[in-house]
Amino acid sequence: MYGSLLGSADSLLGGVDRIRETLDRLGGHTLADSYAALTLLVVAVIGGVYSVLATLRPRAEESAGRAVPVLATGVSRTAWLGGHLAAALLGSTAVLLAAGVGFGLAGALSSGDGGAFLRLTGAALAFTPAQWVTVGFAAAVYGWLPRAVPLAWLVPAYAFVIGYLGPLLDLPGGLERLSPYGRVPRLPAAAMDWTPLVVLTLVAAALIALALAGFRRRDID
């Protein structure tokens, strides 16, 4: 749906001063690029909801009493939780890929630019490390403080408020940098920068290692 508006973004949004000012803050050569960058951020944050839900699935298994019988069979805690986290990591990537393909296909058709498909799909996949950080943070909370798992929702909630409403409310740009999604280059409006993506990937790996360490040490409910 969002991608189908890409071809008419200039005519639909260019006449609304407030929206144009917001999109201009994102940079980009055209208003369509800025619109795509903001839309993909929102789509990625919505995908972060899946990331949290998938990561907290082990908590539901533990609370329902299904974790203990499995762990009693000789399956290690690391293997059990690691399997769930692998599903969350792969699933969150698949969500971004599906979103990018849908947005890119509709955007290419509406704009008549066949090259937009790969650009927009790649722009969506650029948020993959941010999704992994979301998984890692939720996993770390679960691994160490299982009764505090609602805190896992802070990452997508903060990213949405700051990333989407921040430009509309003229909030300081530095607040967005506190979100993993705010560290991702705003493709296609901005140039590609691999450094923050590598850093986010390392942060996600560290958080997952922390989660596994905490889960091995604490009691199972």
Compact summary:
This protein is mostly helical.
Characterization of this structure:
The longest helix has 35 residues, at 77-111. The protein has helices at 9-13, 17-24, 31-55, 57-63, 67-71, 77-111, 116-125, 128-144, 154-169, 173-176, 194-217. It contains 11 helices and no strands.
Give helix % range.
Answer: over 70%
The beta-strand count equals 0
Unreliable spans: none
Distance between termini? 44 Å
Helical segment tally?
11
Shape summary? elongated
List keywords for this structure.
mainly alpha, about 220 residues, 11 helices, about 70% helix, elongated
Question: How does the SSE layout of this entry go?
Answer:
Layout: H1 9-13, H2 17-24, H3 31-55, H4 57-63, H5 67-71, H6 77-111, H7 116-125, H8 128-144, H9 154-169, H10 173-176, H11 194-217
